[in-house]
Design goal:
Length: 204
């Protein structure tokens, strides 16, 4: 015998609150975007422990909104656009400001910013000429983001002097960051270039 349905007012309450909670991942993502300015100011002022705390909160919020969206089925097209945008803004801000205070090589920042510019310009061009751009990140792109976040956190940890600097580890992290940044950028260009060609050919 099927279980009885809850009373109508209770069903309406759950339905209303579920509709509100569906936006929770996007609100967390907006909070992550709001952390860009404090992170930049703290790095420029060389307030390393505070900058590390903000960067850690940003990384934790990234994991939290992704978990909520997947676990409860709260994904949305807006969330798919906001989440990578928040990652790009935070990482770009962190790398640029760390380069400005000479904490990391400037050429590494140029490489990361150039890769993101290629993706953004390509996405705008695809949206304008072909159709809506699906911003869902690839597995390679996700790993690139994870490694870049780890690089920023490691750099801030080193600057706080909570861990000792290990030149071999520095070199390995730089090499891994460069390799994944180049590979993911090239992957985006190839995949979305092929899709654009196929879409143009399929049109009458």
């Amino acid at each position: 015998m099927p279980a009885p349905l809850p009373p109508a007012p209770m069903r309406r309450w759950f339905s209303c609150h579920d509709a509100m909670l569906r936006h929770l991942p996007n609100l967390i993502t907006l909070l992550r975007i709001a952390l860009v300015v404090p992170l930049c100011l703290l790095i420029l002022d060389r307030q390393w422990p505070q900058a590390l705390a903000v960067a850690f909160i940003a990384g934790a919020s990234d994991a939290l909104d992704g978990f909520l969206a997947k676990h409860f089925g709260w994904q949305s097209w807006l969330g798919g656009m906001l989440d990578p945008l928040a990652d790009k803004l935070l990482l770009t801000a962190a790398f640029v400001t760390l380069a400005l205070v000479a904490a990391i090589p400037a050429w590494l920042t140029v490489l990361i910013v150039a890769r993101d510019l290629v993706i953004v310009v390509g996405a705008i061009g695809y949206h304008a000429l072909i159709g809506r751009f699906d911003a869902a990140p690839t597995r390679l792109s996700k790993w690139t983001t994870v490694v870049q976040i780890a690089f920023v956190l490691y750099t801030l940890l080193r600057l706080t002097q909570w861990i000792a600097q290990v030149p071999e580890l520095d070199a390995a992290l730089v090499a891994l960051t460069v390799a994944l940044t180049l590979a993911s950028g090239l992957h985006y260009v190839i995949v979305w270039g092929q899709r654009a060609i196929m879409q143009r050919r399929s049109r009458p």
